[in-house]
Amino acid sequence: MQTEIIKIDSTNIEVAKIKQAADIIRNGGLVAFPTETVYGLGADALNPVAVAKIFEAKNRPLNDPLIMHIADREDLLRLSNEVYKITLDLVDEFWPGPLTLVLKKSQDIPPIVTAGLETVAVRMPDHPVALSLIRESQTPIAAPSANLFRRPSPTSAQHVLDDLNEKVDLILDAGKTNVGVESTILDLTQTPFRILRPGGVSLESLRTIIPDIEPYNGNKILAPGMFIRHYSPKAKVILVEENGKVQIDKINLLASEFAIQGYCIGIIAKEENKDKYSDFNVKVFGPTKNLNLCAANLFSILREFDKEGAQVIIAESVKEEGLGVAIMDRLRKASGRENKV
Ligand code: AMP
Ligand code: MG
What we know:
Blueprint: E1 4-7, H1 15-26, E2 31-33, E3 40-44, H2 48-58, E4 67-69, H3 73-79, H4 85-94, E5 99-104, H5 111-114, E6 119-123, H6 128-137, E7 141-142, H7 157-164, E8 170-173, E9 184-187, E10 194-197, H8 203-207, E11 236-240, H9 244-260, E12 265-270, E13 281-286, H10 291-307, E14 312-316, H11 324-334
């Protein structure tokens, strides 16, 4: 299959381009499209044969369920028969946006989407191209991140092409994504509600609506498919969690040790520390004070290091609050390590 790439301006969307993409979805094909978090690999969520193509293209195990993307609140009622007021309060506050809700599923949903579970994960992405595509397709779109299984998620159309060329019919290219890490997944089928994956919406902001939400417990695999080694570049990733000068000294020491053994090293540093590793190839994900920027740059830096042939990537940590929880989760998973509690 040939992969077509179409550039699309999200501030001035050309309907013909959306129609072309929606035709592919309705005919059971695959379209990669931008969301505010990362690029998604979309198929008609109600067509099991189309959904199977997603798993095949990504090489994703069938026991890893997909998120269903919708464009209108009413669509939620078709996907779940158990939508309570509290669910709608969350929807009002956070949709469209990077919050995925896990609910009891309705009979309409093919088992392949939910990996046979009785629950379904749903979200409404905050991106005009994604919303137009879903509306024009007239069906919910099942979409995981548009990367190969276990690779860093794609934050640009080029990343999608690097992983899925000839495996997807069309890529809608609207430039870089804003948030850069995936959605927060909140399970509403347990009491108290629990975060299964930290992401673009922080625990602090969720607690403004529901004070007793259980935080993410990184020590356990709570959501199916949340494998320990995930989001990984080809290089070995080492995350150094100390602070201040201790962190800098440790990274320099580790980098020197690997360099002496002949390894090609990459360092991921915060803006204020970028000059502290003068012997090495440093990429900056953002200043400590701007975790949004750190999140937005993280996956593309991992991929850039891959392209440059880095064999060992040593990363600084960020403070574990707000979006920092999601960033640290992704870095720990990229390094193949379990999360701390
Ligand atoms: P992604 O590959 O980033 O789209 O993430 C999808 C993730 O959502 C899966 O790997 C699961 O961890 C989670 N997920 C999807 N559906 C469910 C569900 N019904 N219950 C719990 N977690 C789910
Ligand atoms: Mg993914």
